[in-house]
């Protein structure tokens, strides 16, 4: 079910959101509070509380917490798209990082993901796994909370993956241009590199400006080049993790980084050489 705005699962926050955002249409539906994934404070770039496990398949590679559902929680899904010519192994440290924060990452084993066909098929894979009593994912994944993320061509693929109504948010890291954000209706985080000569910041900013019908934010990472995302995730690791934790895990600490009058990233000129958020993003409480 599409959730335009992830609610913090407390009654007073839900009421406040309804009063504040009711006119915009970006109010999520009330839902039972899932068992909480442990807080990490504001340590988004540090390894999370879960030990990652990796399973390499023919079409997808899965990165996930070794002890799935150990607290009774259900784990959200993150679809991952690689840059041109790359496979998930090129991003292994970053994808293990996401898994350490409680996400089940379904990475396409493809060097060409712009049209997101393999990425979107990852949802079908997880639906089958979640329904299989013999699978480690049985009863442990949250099919109502799915994000799409990717780098370069994969960043463009992440936007295209969100055409699927089962996807709830997008992280587009230095994305290529072959996408149409007008076809999606979920929040998007655009990450650009200040010194990226492959996908220049001006292109990423233009894509952000086109996303005026959904909550969208643009972060330009100071000193970052295009290839710094590979392996560790570079400076993209922290903000991308925070965005996913907000929209897929309702993390209240992550909300304060992106939203509210004095959001943490708004004035962080040490980490970012540029920060922008559109009007819909401005209306979300921090």
UniProtKB/TrEMBL annotation:
InterPro entries: AB_hydrolase_fold (IPR029058), PET_hydrolase/cutinase-like (IPR041127). Gene3D superfamilies: alpha/beta hydrolase (3.40.50.1820). This is Chlorophyllase enzyme. Keywords: Signal. The keyword Chloroplast does not apply. Residues 61-259 form the PET hydrolase/cutinase-like domain. Residues 1-25 form the signal peptide. It comes from the Bacteria.
């Amino acid at each position: 079910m599409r959730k335009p705005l992830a609610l913090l699962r407390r009654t007073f926050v839900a009421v406040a959101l309804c009063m504040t955002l009711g006119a915009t249409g970006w109010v999520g539906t009330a839902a039972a509070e899932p068992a909480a994934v442990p807080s990490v404070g504001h340590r988004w770039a540090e390894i999370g509380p879960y030990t990652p496990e990796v399973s390499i398949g023919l079409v997808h590679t899965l990165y996930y917490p070794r002890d799935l559902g150990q607290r009774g929680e259900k784990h959200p899904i993150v679809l991952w798209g690689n840059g041109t010519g790359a496979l998930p192994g090129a991003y292994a440290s970053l994808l293990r990082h996401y898994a350490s924060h409680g996400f089940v990452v379904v990475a396409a084993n493809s060097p060409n993901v712009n049209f997101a066909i393999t990425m979107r098929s990852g949802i079908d894979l997880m639906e089958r796994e979640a329904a299989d009593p013999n699978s480690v994912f049985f009863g442990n994944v949250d099919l109502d909370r799915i994000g799409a993320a990717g780098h370069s061509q994969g960043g463009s693929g992440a936007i295209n993956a969100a055409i699927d109504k089962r996807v709830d948010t997008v992280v587009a890291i230095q994305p290529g241009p072959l996408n149409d954000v007008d076809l999606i209706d979920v929040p998007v985080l655009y990450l650009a590199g200040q010194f990226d000569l492959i996908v220049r910041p001006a292109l990423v900013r233009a894509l952000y400006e086109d996303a005026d019908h959904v909550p969208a934010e643009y972060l330009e990472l100071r000193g970052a080049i295009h290839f710094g995302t590979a392996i560790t995730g570079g400076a993209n690791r922290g903000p991308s993790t925070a965005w996913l934790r907000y929209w897929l895990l309702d993390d209240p600490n992550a909300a304060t980084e992106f939203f509210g009058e004095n959001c943490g990233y708004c004035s962080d000129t040490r980490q970012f050489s540029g920060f922008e958020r559109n009007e819909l993003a401005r209306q979300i409480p921090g």
